[in-house]
Specification:
- This protein is an alpha/beta fold.
- The chain contains nine helices and 14 strands.
- Strands 5-4-1-12-13-14 form a six-stranded parallel beta sheet. It has a four-stranded parallel beta sheet with strand order 6-7-8-11, with helices on one face.
- A hairpin with a 2-residue loop joins strand 9 and strand 10.
- Helix 4 crosses helix 5.
- The two termini are about 15 Å apart.
């Protein structure tokens, strides 16, 4: 059976699939605005499943709307709200190494006498002093009590014409230096994907994840029983991703528009 047959729900990565980010705000990928609109008017539910942690869901939705997408914050599943919920449930007080634009999301969380470190994508705010402060916070805890959370496990993403380090790479540095194991609150974490599937209201085996990250998007989805489809946009690199040494996607498509064409013609 083709990957696009029998699909009852769709999860979409955003950066590299709908649009490419960039220093001046980025730009929509050709055909993706119409593809989202076609999904909106189809019978197939979808959610944007993103590790975006540099802005709030509302601001993220507003940015996508500015690019021309018919998207609301309800269409988006991202790590920051899930991270806030986890901190409350576990009574954790974080040292926050996150982008300044999302700090208001953590306003209800005490950060006094931190007992964990929470990291998000900080872009240029990943400075030596910021990393060192997080490093020393973890070292101040006993080895068995060190808790490191990362809102995403990606290695890199495409920003404009360049590939840039993602939060997962910085979190790995702290994991190595502090002899602790990071917990990912975002893709490819099972609980994060489970949340998105619940919002779709479909069985996991009836869902497909479409993304440009062959590890977090495709491999992460397949590990949970979903289908995973790789787009040849965003940070996709033919020399690395096709074929990949460990992960075999259920399908490759040139872009989101082709994926939606196949979905709608087979369902």
């Amino acid at each position: 059976m083709s990957w696009c047959e029998g699909v009852k729900g769709v999860l979409l990565d955003v950066t590299g699939v709908l649009y490419n980010s960039g220093p001046t705000g980025g730009a929509a990928i050709e055909g993706s605005i119409d593809a989202i609109q076609r999904l909106k008017t189809s019978h197939i539910p979808f959610k944007l499943c993103s590790n975006e942690s540099t802005e709030t869901r509302a601001n993220f939705a507003a940015k996508l709307t500015k690019h021309g997408f018919n998207i609301t914050s309800d269409d988006i599943v991202c790590p920051v709200p899930a991270m806030v919920d986890l901190l409350k449930q576990e009574n954790l007080r974080p040292h926050l190494l996150v982008h300044p634009d999302v700090l208001p999301e953590f306003a209800s969380i005490s950060t006094e006498n931190p007992n964990c470190v929470v990291m998000g994508d900080c872009n240029t705010h990943f400075t030596y002093s910021a990393m060192n402060a997080a490093f020393n916070t973890l070292l101040s805890m006993s080895p068995k009590d060190r808790k490191l959370y990362s809102m995403g496990g990606g290695k890199y993403y495409k920003d404009g014409d360049d590939l840039v380090l993602d939060v997962g790479a910085y979190a790995k540095a702290l994991e190595y230096a502090c002899d602790c194991k990071m917990v990912v609150c975002g893709k490819p974490n099972k609980l994060f994907y489970d949340q998105a599937i619940r919002l779709l209201g479909v069985n996991i085996e009836d869902c497909v994840m479409i993304g440009d990250d062959i590890i977090s998007d495709v491999g992460g989805a397949q590990a949970l029983g979903m289908k995973g489809v790789q787009v040849r946009t965003g940070k996709y690199r033919a020399v690395y991703d096709e074929p990949h040494s460990e992960i075999t996607p259920d399908g490759y498509v040139d872009n989101l528009a082709e994926a939606v064409d196949l979905l709608l013609s087979n369902n």
